[in-house]
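tl;dr need the bound structure. longer version: we got a ligand (pyridoxal-5'-phosphate) that a collaborator sent over and nobodys looked at where it sits. i said id run it. heres the input, straight from their email, havent touched it
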Amino acid sequence: MKVIPYGRQLIDDIDISEVVRVLKSDFLTQGPEVQNFEKNFSKFVSSRYAISSNSATSSLHIACMALNLGSEDLVWTSPNSYVASANCALYCGAKVDFIDIELTTFNIDIDKLELKLKRAKKEGTLPKIIIPVHFSGNSCDMEKIYDLSKIYKFHIIEDASHCVGANFNSKKIGSCEFSDACIFSFHPVKIMTTGEGGMITTNSEEMYKKSTKLRSHGVTKESADFINQQNNPWYFEQQILGFNYRMTDIAAALGSSQLKKVNQWVEYRKRIASKYDMQIDNPNVTKINLKHFIGSSHHLYVIRLPNKDLRDRLYNELRKNNILVNIHYIPIHLHPYFANLGFKAGMYPVCEEYYNTAISLPIFASLEDKDIQIISEIINNFS
Ligand SMILES: *Cc1c(COP(=O)(O)O)cnc(C)c1O
């Protein structure tokens, strides 16, 4: 029986020949392809700068560092995300806290955010950075979060790992109109891939310069930036403690080639979402309201069941039929590592309720109509 994963990459012959071209060239890393990809990406999202890296996790880490996040600081993010959204704060020695989600979009609840900010201001525990996660490539209300950031003085890093090709207010996510930086992932299950890879987009020159340095050992080769003035042609200097988080030229060439297809792929995904919407018809199944997903890149298509028991049974039924559905996400605060930091079940009840009742159905650019039909039929026959 055919196996249908929940997400997968789409690689064509042009992608392959682009990678082969780089393999035969002089540079496998730190050559022209990385710069090209960054230029193409910043043009695609209309940001001033783009800084690539070897993963969204690395990009989140260096974006936090570029905003001088330290051990006295707090970061708030969504509990309905991959652990990387919170780990970036912990890498910097900062503390992390979460804002519960809402059930229409599964993004952070802005009313709860505002209440939490009011309380934190009284208690002197305001966050330095908030990392909104655009679940499924469906933007949080960035205008509202931006307005709050002006009142409560926090920085904003968008975790846009799901969002290549997505829009907010008819502008591409990544334009950073309402944030300091925006982070993308090119892991193979995401909208486009470089194998592993990540990108920061920003309009801030300081963010650009610091992130570029942090990505490569904290080193600069720009003579204008040297602390010790030297004319020696071999000279470079390490100015801060950075990492080797660089993307390879091989990956970047794949990225540039994939990027050309993203807008079309997002259209395919949108079509798949509306087909599920039309074909799934089971009184026990709640579909997402597509009205709340305008501009989404439709990284995930989530259905919900009335309770955990029904959810688990439908999950098993689909898996038994080789439909490799998944659950996004195990709430970050419920992982043992976070339990050790003091987080407990019950702290973010909406996220936990969502986790117990949700299933992510297969959605990817090459998913065929007949597969959508098969999946919908299994769901419709389920009771
Ligand atoms: C995939 C993902 C990440 C991590 O991306 P990598 O490129 O695998 O490091 C972070 N946040 C979210 C929301 C993700 O989906």
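gonna send this back to them w/ a short note. Residues 99 and 116 are 8 Å apart (CA to CA).
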